[in-house]
Amino acid sequence: SGKCVTTITDGVEYGLCCAYAPGDRYVLVGTKSGRLQVFDINAAQLVYTVEASEDQLPIWSMCLAANSAGVVTGGEDKSVKFWSFELQLDTVANSRHLSVIHQRSLAMDDGVLCVRVSPNGKFVAASLLDSTVKLFFYDTLKFFLSLYGHKFPVLSMDISSDSALIATGSSDKNLKLWGMDFGDCHRSLFAHDDSLMAVQFVPKTHYLFTAGKDKALKQWDADGYEKIQTLGGHQAEVWAMAVSPDGKFAVTAAHDRTLRVWQKTTERNHNLLLFLYLSLALKLLSDKRWLLLAGAERLIEALDVYREEVAARREYDDRCRAAETRGDKQLPAPPPPNPRMMYYKTDCPHRYALEVLRRIKSNELEETLLTLPFNYVVQLLDVLADQLARRWDVELMCRCVCFILRVNFGQIVSTPLLLPTLDQLRQLMNGSVADLKV
Questions:
Q1: In this structure, are 25 and 145 located in the same domain?
Q2: Which of 97, 177, 349, 391 has the least CB density, counted as fewest CB within 10 Å?
Q3: Structural contact between residues 233 and 260, judged by C-beta atoms closer than 8 angstroms
């Protein structure tokens, strides 16, 4: 329902971190003054307070122990402390309430910003002010690995449910994914435009969420190293985040004084679908553009072949006439057939030009003609005049002539050399169209 269940004011200090005790009846809060407070949610009151820092330095982080029998805290006093739960008798109310007992401490060289215990209970990780993350064996507290690579201190981190990956988020705006076995950095991702404030895996998966001061919540795939989605809505920096145990929703808290609940649905994001549709449309348009360019290139190639073959045929005819004039008994050998023309199963350059024009799709013809350079437009007009003189595919030739004249009118009119060709086309089109009517 989103309604406030209860509000506790008596005894509450400046809280920096918190954790629910098993059963969700009690919540533990680490304070700026170095105290560890236990609140009874049902009774809405403070039931226990203990000094967790001798110098009253802030407790920056807290998490449940692997066996859920206690909590682990880390603070500015350069130590990681392990606490166990214990039910304490309240003689006044004649009832028991939860308390915490300090069991052991792990000294560090710098202040501790974040602590996490691996789900398999094997390791405890602590991020320090020297921008490193140190891993220790949980049972013996012996040093295991040091993860270094961030330029600024790690503000948040989390370990996957299978204890295979650890994700760290820093004020250097990067999200780093590490292997828990050898401490190798699998991938470093520029995740946010400002500091990362919260990192948490979705239980039983390698998906994770990150939240930052750039007001965004982002979801990532830690196996594919890809961003899945970006969720916006906060109007100020996001300070904290939590993911539900079933992974069906996430909650963020921001400096705009709002809590936002992000629920997992089967519906696809409308903006994402629009982006995909637009990407597909642009790809199709790009593919079509390449097809049109390919069609124009084939037409240009055909015009070049046509010009060369007509010139070769004219030269061959001249040589034959010269041989006949000289009275030679043997005529010169004809030029070899062009392989490009053989592909269209013809050795006639005029028939070859006709076949190339016919094989351009009707819906792509105008776009193909539109992409032709003007010098090839001039050549094509000569080819079209030749085709009309032969009465070959009159409708197609007239369509090409009309479109070329319409789109290149300015250049054609300003080219006096084209006047004979235009006059010839006018006469041929009138005659060929009149023949079609008959």
A1: yes
A2: 391
A3: yes
